[in-house]
Design goal:
heterodimer, A: FAD/NAD(P)-binding domain, seven-stranded mixed sheet, six-stranded antiparallel sheet, B: 212 residues, mainly alpha, 0% strand
Chain lengths: 564, 212
């Protein structure tokens, strides 16, 4: 392997090792490119490092959260809404939480693996209802790449032929759990579409990986590589080509440009020593996460690019969106005293509800999908809090112990995940005064939900309450009013930030073209959530990967044509 | 690790019951029998070779009080109770590593206040008291928590009235939550009480039982 500091430039340097960076590295190394990848965090290998098989009592802390792992000490992902030494700021009145992963694989170590394709309508919302913007590409442009991602990474699901919820190349989906059958029944009564989930967990052997063994601990990292995470599914196979070098603990701070305005490499901080280093490359790909990539571009000012790189249009950092979210859980008396059974399954819901209504008949313009949770998860710190709310009202002693036996698994919850429309009040920019521990200017966030989102979340709350009532259940919390945003989570809390380096059909209104390539700097590409023109009522990861693969193919063909 | 190895490890973690052939009635009967057997066999395991836990926060007296309280919250029945699951060690670790200054204060001050109240009632500390006054004191604290929670709930439904004291500031709330967390994540709590059914190798979701 060559030293990343070699003066001879790499074919490509990629910043970030998550979903977008992983796909890009995989595709480009297979195509013959020599690639250097920078990752701000440390090394991670699920096959060795995962806590998948741990029991709660294997740690005296019983799985409670730590500052490094806010989702619990057994969780795979190192990161959080606050990272020591790496602050961000919020404009007055802004509620926004920015999640950063700091490890090989980035957020692919964290996510719920819900893998939904955007539908044809999701790329042309402005044409349909006048709100937001159309993408410069359509579903047909991405479909072959979605198919390719399905085959390479693996996904289970069911062919449903629903409008705007395209099917994929699916492995068989696991059957619903007991409580999920209840949800399906209630959904059918209320005419809510409820179908098998679509998760990037394989249920048949694929590319040398074993199928899922249904231990339900996907979030800890899969030791058999049966679910998707970037290191074990993309990066390690890419390394086998001998053409990928990964530099961890490398915090990118700026893209360097030459006198011709083209990118010449990436400046980064060696986190271990604090030393400022440089890696030269013919092509630069940012896949650092939507906001981090925007930050790097804004910090890449030069005489040729005075507003930051790829920002002559001024859109970098703008059009920031997150998925809307709210949750409601209910106590379901008919599940009390159920027969104890193993309902581990995969690490996520086996069913979900894709958006099923027509927004023209509603007081909000965009849809949402519903995720379902319940069952007998492995207990951890905070186990079954709020026992007082169950019928006997708490207490202690043998009665309390009997109550836990009876009520464990008798709760069903719903999480709504909806589309936000980009607005002028939600964006990020460089903070004029604050810097991080290395002196790099940090982001300042501005955030505002519009009535579009608030009315949508109100509809979620009402729907979840109807579903719980239909199952004969009881919701303990009162419906939150408009003063509380109907229970909407803070911006950033669903960890689906998109749009800060948007693509478009014109250099004056967008940073990138439809190939995720910067208008102002032809050898610069962005393959994370940055290029998105809009959210959808779907999780973004699968589209990040399809876009990354399409962009990678563009890099290969342009390079072969001598354009890069 | 490959799948075979993973399954072997999982299998080692549970006594795989002999109902792997698929017949719903037999399965359910088998699970019940399995659990019944597991509970029947449940008795304190022989002492495991391990380094003894070193208490960081609780003094001997406090530690013993916590152990007694935890056993009142989750007593030994057909399965072991909180004492056997060493919940006192868990409480100490949480107080040392995680609890905020405020929460730690609630527990430690609560232990002192508990002794003071017991002195008023019986003339001695909680540990010196007989089982009946101990239980009476816990009932009293539980009633207070229930009343505080009800007041808090009523307040949330009426605008403009002053907020009552937060029920989460009560010692009993912390004591009970810590005991429950510590117990159900212990080996006894998880494998016996929680009724963990780790059936490696098969995943069969809920099946219709009647009218097959």
């Amino acid at each position: 392997m060559r030293s990343p500091r070699s003066a001879d430039p790499w074919d490509v340097v990629i910043v970030g090792s998550g979903a977008g960076g992983g796909i890009t590295a995989h595709h480009l190394t297979k195509a013959g490119a020599r690639v250097c990848m920078l990752e701000a965090g440390g090394w991670w290998d699920n096959a060795k490092d995962s806590a998948m098989l741990k029991m709660p009592y294997d740690s005296p802390r019983r799985g409670a959260s730590t500052s490094e792992r806010p989702f619990g000490e057994f969780d795979a992902c190192v990161g959080g809404w606050s990272v020591p030494g790496e602050p961000y700021t919020r404009a007055e009145g802004t509620k926004f939480d920015w999640w950063r992963a700091r490890m090989l694989g980035g957020r692919t170590n964290h996510w719920g693996r819900i893998s939904l394709r955007f539908g044809p309508d999701d790329f042309r919302r402005k044409s349909l209802d006048g709100l937001g913007d159309d993408w410069p590409i359509g579903y047909d442009d991405l479909k072959p790449w979605y198919d390719e991602v399905d085959r390479l990474v693996g996904i289970f699901g069911s062919v449903e032929n629903l409008p705007n919820h395209p099917d994929g190349v699916f492995h068989p989906a696991p059957k619903p759990r007991c409580y999920e059958l209840e949800v399906m029944r209630a959904s059918a009564k209320l005419n809510v579409t409820c179908i098998p989930a679509r998760l990037s967990v394989i249920t048949r052997p694929l590319n040398g990986r074993a199928p899922c063994h249904y231990c339900g601990q996907c979030n800890r990292g899969c030791m058999t590589n049966s679910n998707f995470s970037s290191p074990n599914v993309l990066l390690f196979p890419a390394m086998k080509t001998g053409r990928l070098t990964i530099v961890t603990k490398a915090m990118a701070r700026a893209v360097a440009t030459g006198d011709d305005g083209k990118a010449s490499g990436v400046h980064y901080i060696d986190v271990a020593t604090g030393e400022d280093k440089f890696v030269a490359a013919r092509v630069v790909v940012l896949a650092a996460s939507a906001c981090e990539s925007a930050r790097i571009l804004l910090n890449s000012k030069s005489s040729r690019h005075p507003q930051g790189l790829a920002n002559s249009s001024g859109v970098v950092g703008k059009y920031l969106t997150d998925t809307t979210g709210t949750d409601v859980a209910g106590f379901i008396p008919k599940l009390v005293d159920h027969v104890p059974h193993n309902c581990d399954g995969v690490g996520g819901g086996h069913v979900y509800m894709p958006w099923w209504l027509d927004n023209k008949k509603l007081d909000f313009p965009r849809g949402y999908h519903i995720e379902v949770w319940g069952g007998l998860g492995q207990p951890s710190y905070g186990f079954m809090g709020g026992i007082d709310r169950y019928p006997p009202g708490g207490g202690y002693g043998a009665q309390l112990k009997a109550d836990y036996r009876r009520y464990y698994g008798a709760t069903i919850g719903f999480s709504g995940r909806g589309e936000q429309i980009p607005n002028a009040d939600s964006y990020c920019e460089l903070d004029p005064t604050v810097t991080d521990r290395w002196g790099i200017p940090v982001l300042r966030f501005h955030w505002k939900w519009a009535d579009h989102e608030l009315n949508q979340v109100k509809h979620m709350q009402e729907t979840f309450r109807l579903l719980i009532a239909e199952m004969g259940g009881e919701v303990w919390s009162a419906m939150p009013g408009k003063d509380k945003g109907y229970g909407i989570g803070n911006g950033g809390s669903i960890i689906h930030e998109l749009g800060t380096v948007r693509m478009g059909s014109s250099a004056s209104t967008s940073a990138l073209n439809g190939d995720c390539q910067a208008w102002d700097c032809r050898n610069l590409f962005v393959t994370d959530g940055g290029p998105f023109v809009s959210q959808a009522d779907k999780n973004p990861t699968w589209t990040i990967m399809a876009l990354a693969m399409r962009a990678s193919a563009a890099i290969v063909s342009q390079r072969k044509a001598g354009l890069l | 690790m490959d799948r075979r190895q993973a399954l072997r490890t999982l299998a080692a973690a549970s006594a795989a019951p002999a109902f792997l052939h698929w017949d719903p009635d037999a399965l359910i009967a088998g699970i019940r029998e399995h659990l019944h057997e597991a509970r029947r066999r449940a008795r304190p395991r022989p002492p495991q070779p391990r380094s003894p836990y070193e208490f960081q926060i609780l003094t001997g007296q406090q530690r013993a009080t916590v152990a007694e309280l935890s056993e009142i919250v989750i007593p030994a029945t057909d399965t072991p109770g909180a004492k056997a699951a060493r919940v006192d060690e868990f409480v100490d670790l949480i107080l040392a590593e995680w609890a905020t200054e405020n929460d730690r204060g609630i527990v430690l001050n609560g232990l002192a206040a508990l002794d003071a109240r017991m002195r008023q009632a019986t003339g001695g500390t909680f540990l010196e008291a007989a089982p009946a006054p101990r239980v009476a004191m816990c009932t009293q604290m539980d009633d207070e928590l229930t009343a505080a929670r009800a007041a808090s709930r009523a307040w949330s439904r009426t605008a403009g009235t002053p907020r009552p004291p937060d029920h989460r500031s009560l010692f009993w709330h912390h004591m009970r939550s810590l005991t429950v967390s510590g117990y159900y994540t212990s080996e006894a709590g998880y494998t016996l009480e929680r009724m963990a059914v780790l059936v490696p190798g098969i995943y069969n979701p809920c099946m219709p039982v009647a009218g097959r």
